[in-house]
Design a protein that fits this description.
It is a multi-pass membrane protein. This protein is 72% helix and 1% strand. It has a two-stranded antiparallel sheet with strand order 1-2. By secondary structure, the protein is an all-alpha fold. A hairpin with a 2-residue loop joins strand 1 and strand 2. It contains 14 helices and 2 strands. It has one domain. Helix 9 packs parallel to helix 14.
Length: 276
């Protein structure tokens, strides 16, 4: 535990000391929220019936719909890119010093995953600063629900990032692989657009995409779809189902939890085989 805490603390301290990274973490989410949220809200409103829409569809708010996805995007990218430090440590020789220390490699791997998860959780919570400006009402109980869910999702993505980082030797290669992997998964997770009306082959990819269930957890907690009219839930793509079974929040937590365990085991095994 002492070794795990040391690695965990190092990554968290590095994050808070890097002011450019701390401030820059707002840049992409803010850009997506303003450009896609405010800019595309008119187009999405027209697709849903525009100003002529009546009934529950008139309540469709694209900015409100996007906000849980923006939180998800922040957690995803921060968590998976946190493993970049592993590649950088290998490039600058610091990893060699850690590997030859008495600390077990399992402790190093778990410490790295926990450090990345903590940083991603903090950045995800910072996105709540935008809440007063977009008209969403978030209660304290919602925040208490979001914290463990964010950490669970971040833990899974940090494990995936560590698994990738242990197989690569350069920072440029890591960033390229992660971008090719994460952005298609992000766009097919329902974070930025409703998942309704997709072709069958794309809908299949959506259902096997782990980020889909992660984003849907954030939506269920923040948007409270059970309080919406059925037509509005359908329009916003909030009726996520597999084999005609509507997935519940506990089931999504179970899916992401199992993925977290699976990937952290793979990442730990792969990390333990790194040559010093």
């Amino acid at each position: 535990m002492e070794g795990i805490m040391a690695i965990w603390q190092r990554d968290v301290i590095k994050f808070f000391r890097d002011r450019a990274r701390l401030v820059g973490s707002f840049a992409m989410p803010f850009m997506f929220l303003i450009l896609f949220g405010s800019g595309m809200s008119g187009a999405m409103s027209s697709m849903m019936g525009g100003s002529e829409a009546s009934g529950p569809l008139a309540d469709f708010d694209f900015v409100e719909f996007m906000f849980p996805g923006i939180i998800g995007m922040t957690v995803f990218t921060t968590a998976i890119f946190s493993a970049l430090s592993v590649v950088q440590d290998k490039e600058f020789g610091y990893m060699r010093e850690i590997l030859v220390s008495p600390m077990s490699r399992v402790s190093i791997a778990i410490g790295k995953v926990l450090g990345g998860s903590t940083v991603a959780l903090f950045q995800g919570l910072m996105m709540l600063i935008f809440v007063p400006f977009i008209g969403i009402s978030i209660s304290f109980s919602m925040i208490l629900q979001l914290i463990p869910v964010m950490f669970l999702v971040a833990f899974a993505l940090s494990s995936i990032g560590l698994l990738i980082a242990t197989s690569l030797k350069t920072s440029q290669g890591f960033q390229m692989v992660v971008q090719v992997l994460i952005f298609p998964m992000l766009f097919l997770s329902g974070a930025l657009f409703p998942l309704s009306g997709m072709p069958a082959w794309m809908n299949f990819i959506v259902k096997i995409n782990p980020l889909t269930y992660s984003v849907d957890m954030f939506k269920k907690i923040i948007l409270q779809p059970e309080q919406m009219a059925p037509a509005l839930r359908e329009a916003m793509g909030l009726n996520l189902s597999v084999f005609n079974h509507v997935i519940t929040l506990p089931e999504e937590i179970l899916v992401v939890g199992l993925l977290s365990v699976f990937f952290v085991i793979l990442a730990t095994i792969r990390f333990s085989r790194i040559e010093a």
